[in-house]
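pasting input
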Amino acid sequence: MYPDNYRYTKEHEWVLVEGDTGTIGITHHAQGELGDIVYVDLPKVGTEIAQHSTFGSVESVKAVSDIYSPVSGEILAINDILATAPEKLNADPHGDAWLVKVKLKDLSEIPGLMTAADYKNYIGA
Amino acid sequence: MNESAALQATPLNATHRKLGAKMVDFGGWDMPVQYKGILDEHKAVRTGVGVFDVSHMGELVVRGPQALDLVNWIATNDAAKLKTGQIHYSGLLYEHGGFVDDILVHKVADDEYFICVNASNQDKDFAHIEAANTFQATVENAGARYAQIAVQGPKALAVCQKLTATDLAPIRYYWFVDGEFAGVSARIARTGYTGEDGFEIYVRPDEAVAVWEAIFEAGAEFGIIPCGLGARNTLRLEAKMALYGHEIDATISPLEADLAWMVKLDKPGFIGKAALEEQKAAGLSRKLCGFEMIGRGIGRDGYEIEIDGVKAGWVTSGGPAPTLGKNVGLCYLPIANAVPGQKINVIIRGVAVEAVTVPTPFYKRAK
């Protein structure tokens, strides 16, 4: 369920690091807690985001939740399908429904994030 | 003792947990907010049938030779117009015209009225009515004697009819009968908080689980599902039904809340009447209206509203309207702006997003 090559945060985001690019999403656990997702608010390409700072929000029928970035960097791409199909975040949060791709600013941030085993332990999965 | 141990539980609490419900603290009650998902539950009620445990709701019973006089003194609607077996929506007000609660008054007999009140308000309501009771009438805080299950949706009649010998079809909207239901004594009311046809069934708490199970057995052929407070909220919002603490509270009058229809200023005195007459004569300064988002975003409860860059009001309830596929809400606006077609900005997390006022209700079922 939780890919071993991803790193995770306590706020239930994941990041996949490939070279100096990071792909960021929310976890399966997060989508389950949120329930039916109806709206995703993401920053524009080119925006600088900082580790552990909020850079967008995900809204379920009932509530708004901030998204915190696992890493610092510059937004290279946002996942356009979420604008018209936010429910994909419920269906495939670790795959097609990634949120943004960033150009990583500081690779030394990565080892401080949870591994899949740490995260599963953290959520009691 | 931890906090969750202090929460009140309905007789169906273990049933919800077995069904995998997500439970939340709702005004001090441990209640299911959703089972599988709010959108599926919402759709089931609009197109088929869904079932809600609303046993947290309070019940008050007014009895005695002057029961009618007491009810008419403490509530805004005219209970003298009710026939035995009939129900109406009414307001319990303070002297200053703000809401103590909104209530459903059921006329059981000339000397008995059964009042359904909001869960977290029931003790306050009881104390308020007791304090106003100078009549030959008694008031019972009867919440502990009742569980309440709401069966809602176009298939609710077909499901409920399988469980009772009482002919349910002739019961009109906002009427009730007392009869046997799923083998137990029940009060069967054609009411609901969803904007859909349906029944609210009042039974003894120790019989609630058996009744719930019988409803699901009867409803299986119609695809019946359990529904939580999340869907209850989206359904009532589409139907523009007020929620205490949101559209109405102690600072809001029924005239402001667009509920003048349940205030009968032509009946003899009632608590809050003078304040409402004064407000009516002076003219309202603000009024509840509906809006639809135009820009991307969802205007939610408590968000501020601006018109031309000036703070003008606030969102009382807002969110997605699943039946309409739009993001809608209710809000208070200055009276001059409280008409359909007014462009407004909802301040969503610091950003002004365009919206427009629209006629309500957002959803009305085909009769």
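fyi The two ends of chain B are 51 Å apart (CA to CA).
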